[in-house]
Design goal:
Shape: elongated
Radius of gyration: 17 Å
Strand content: under 5%
Strand order of the largest sheet: 1-2
Distance between the termini: 43 Å
Largest sheet: 2 strands, antiparallel
Number of strands: 2
Oligomer: single chain
Length: 113
Amino acid sequence: MCLSILEVVLLVAGAWLLITGNASDRWFQPLFGKGHYVMPEKQARLLGLFLATPLPVAILVSLILRLLLGENYLAYAVGFEIIYDVVVAVVATRIARKSRQPEVQAQQAITNQ
């Protein structure tokens, strides 16, 4: 259940980034921590696509494993889901942290807008 909640949160955040292309602090701070995040639109949309993948991939892999393994698929599906969610969370956090600006640069960026 907790994995499903995480996957839905990532799907919503990814869909928002795909639609808007805007990596605003309002979305990034709850997910990745305090700071000012600056990301080009194309990179934000790619990150959104990446964030949106865990739920569809988990469903697809579960269906494929069910066809291949029959009744014994569930342990493998859950194992894959856990590993994939952790990889997505770590990679997304690393990407977001690289786009985070220090406070001094953040204040300058806000005043220059």
